[in-house]
Amino acid sequence: MTTHADASALFQPDNFIDGAWAPSQTGHRFEVTDPATGTVIAHVPESGPQDARAAADAAAAALPAWRARLPRERAELLRRWHALILARQEELAALICREQGKPLAEAHGEVAYGASYVAWFAEEATRIYGDIIPDQQRGKRMTAIKEPIGVVAAITPWNFPLAMIARKIAPALAAGCTVVGKPAEDTPLTALALARLGQEAGFPPGVLNLITASRAKAATAVDTWLADSRIRKITFTGSTPVGKHLARESAATLKKLSLELGGNAPFIVFDDADLEAAVDGVMAAKFRNGGQTCVCPNRVYVQAGVYDRFATLLRDKVAALRVGLGTDPASQIGPMINARAVDKIARHVDDARAQGARVLTGGERLAHLGPHYYAPTVLGEAHAGMALCGEETFGPVVPLFRFDDEAQAIAAANDTPFGLASYFYTQDVRRIERVSRALESGIVGVNEGALASEAAPFGGVKESGYGREGSKYGLDDYLSIKYVCQGGLG
C-alpha cells in the first residue's frame, strides 16, 4: 500500500504511561488491521486492570504540579503540540487512512480539524474566569472560582481517531486536568502518534497517558477507572448502551460525565427549499467518512411536492461517487471499518427492500474491491416500520421518506429516543424559526450540511447524551466551581 507520506514514522505500538512507552503488563497484544485489505498492520498492547491502574497512578501523581502551572504555561505547551501536529500532517493523514480507511483527502481534513481544537483550547486556557459576587452582608467577600476537576478518563471511537481524542484531551489539559485515555480498538495507532507528539511538545510525565485494549478486553481496563475514586470525570464518544454502562458503573464514585452517544439524525427537505442546495447538503452531511459519523442524516424526509425531483437529483449524484482505496486520489468513499459494519448496512438495506423500499442506486456489497466495501445507496419510499428508521445505519445509505406537511415532518423527525443532530432546508424565514425550536436535538443545521467547528458546542439531548465539546462551553465540563466566603472584613 502506497501513501503520500510514510505513516510508519509515527508508529508507536506500545502504551504510553508516565512519559514512557511500554508493553502491557498482561504480556499480550492484539492485531490492528487495514480495513481496505484486512491485512495486519500492527500489534498493540492488550491492556488489563494493572495497566489501567498504572495510568491512573501516573495521572494522579502528575495532577498537583500540572494544575499549579500558570494557564499561559499550559497554553504554550498546547501551542507546541498544535504546531507539531500540523508539521506532521502528511504522516498523520497517512496513518488515519491506513488504519481507518477514509480517503486521504478526508484524513488530511481530520488532522486539521483535530488540530483546531488544540489551538482553540490553548487560547481558552487563559480565559478561565471566576466571579466576585455582589456583597450580601457587610464585612463578607464572596467569590466563585473555577478549578480543574481532576483526573479525566477519555474513551474515544474509531471513526475520527485523531479529532475525537484531540477534542477531549485539549480542553482537559487546558483546564489543568491530567488524562488517562483508551482509543478505539480498531484505530489506536493515530492516538498513540498524538501522544508521541505530545511527548515531543514537552508535556510532563503522567499528564497524558494512553493504553490500548481489544473489544473483548476493554471493559476490564475501563471498569478499573470507573471504580477509581481518583478519576473524577469520564468523557466518552460512542454507542448509547456503552454510555449507559459508564454512567451506571461510575455512579458509586459520582464522577462527572460527558457522553456523546448515538444519533438518528433527520434531514427535512421542504417544498420551498433550494433542491440543488439540499442535495449538496445531504451529500456533505451523509457521505463524509462513508456515512460513518454520528451526525450523518439517517432519515431524509422530503415533502411530497418535490419528492420525485429531489430523489432523481440525489440518485444521480450518489451514483457518481467513486468507491475505492483511501489512498487513491480519485476515491470519495473508502471501506467500512470492519465486517460487522458491512453486515449491519446489508441487513438494513435487505430489510428495507423486503418491506417495499425501492433501490434507486447501490444496494449491494462491492466484494470485488475488498471485504469491507458497500455501494453508496439511495432507497426510495422508506417508512417508519423499517429497521433503518429506528437504528443508526452508520454507512453510505440514504433512505427517503415522503411527508405532506410541516407538523408531520417535525413529529417524524422527533420520533426517536435520540437527539444529536438534525437538518432542514427551507427558504421561509418564519419556518426556520419554528422548526429550529421544534426539533429535539442538540445541533441543528439550517440550509447547511457541514456543521463541525471547534468554536461551536457539540453534543446532544435525550439518549444522545449530555455535555458539550468544543467552543467556550467545552471547557466547563472539565472544571468545578468553588465558592469562597471570606468574613471579618468589616
TrEMBL record:
GO terms for molecular function: succinate-semialdehyde dehydrogenase (NAD+) activity; succinate-semialdehyde dehydrogenase (NADP+) activity. It comes from Achromobacter pulmonis. Transmembrane segments: none annotated. This is Succinate-semialdehyde dehydrogenase [NADP(+)] GabD. The active site is at E260. It comes from the Bacteria. One of its GO terms (biological process) is gamma-aminobutyric acid catabolic process. Keywords: Oxidoreductase. The gene is gabD_1. SUPFAM superfamilies: ALDH-like. Belongs to the aldehyde dehydrogenase family. It holds the Pfam family Aldedh. The keyword Repeat does not apply. Residues 21-484 form the Aldehyde dehydrogenase domain. Its EC number is 1.2.1.79. It is an enzyme of class 1 (oxidoreductase).
